[in-house]
Design a protein that fits this description.
The protein is of the alpha+beta class. The chain contains three helices and three strands; from the N terminus they run αααβββ. The protein has a domain of about 80 residues. The chain is elongated and about 70 Å long.
Length: about 120
């Protein structure tokens, strides 16, 4: 190794770590909210038989506000199924704005999809 070559690798490693940490700090909360809301959507879908479709949407919109997601409407959801004992699909799509260095904002499309093989007859 030549003199100064080691310095280059140390600086390169520090730069890579800095970029990785910055990415985790900016994107970590977005994916954490997505994960929390996905779990809540699954619980609401499993309780579908007891609540019905309209109440399910109301509950999910209220829960989205509680975890600071962008404002959601019923149009942001897609639901297929609805019969007990049949497969069900619930999707939610929204735009999360990510603040980048320099004051720029990047709109990131988030899609949460919940598949259940059979809708249960009672909530768990």
């Amino acid at each position: 190794m030549n003199r100064g070559e080691g310095k280059f690798y140390v600086i390169a490693a520090i730069l890579i770590v800095a970029v990785t940490v910055t990415g985790v700090v900016m994107l970590g909360p977005v994916y954490q909210r997505k994960w929390k809301f996905g779990k809540q959507m699954e619980e609401d879908l499993r309780a579908f038989d007891a609540t019905g479709e309209e109440r399910m949407y109301e509950d999910m919109i209220r829960e989205a506000r509680a975890i600071r997601l962008p404002p959601l409407t019923v149009d942001d959801f897609y639901f297929e199924g609805g019969e007990v004992g049949q497969p069900a699909l619930l999707q939610c799509e929204y735009i999360e704005n990510i603040k980048l260095p320099g004051g720029r904002i990047y709109p990131m499309r988030i899609l949460i999809e919940i598949n259940i093989a059979k809708l249960p007859t009672r909530p768990f």
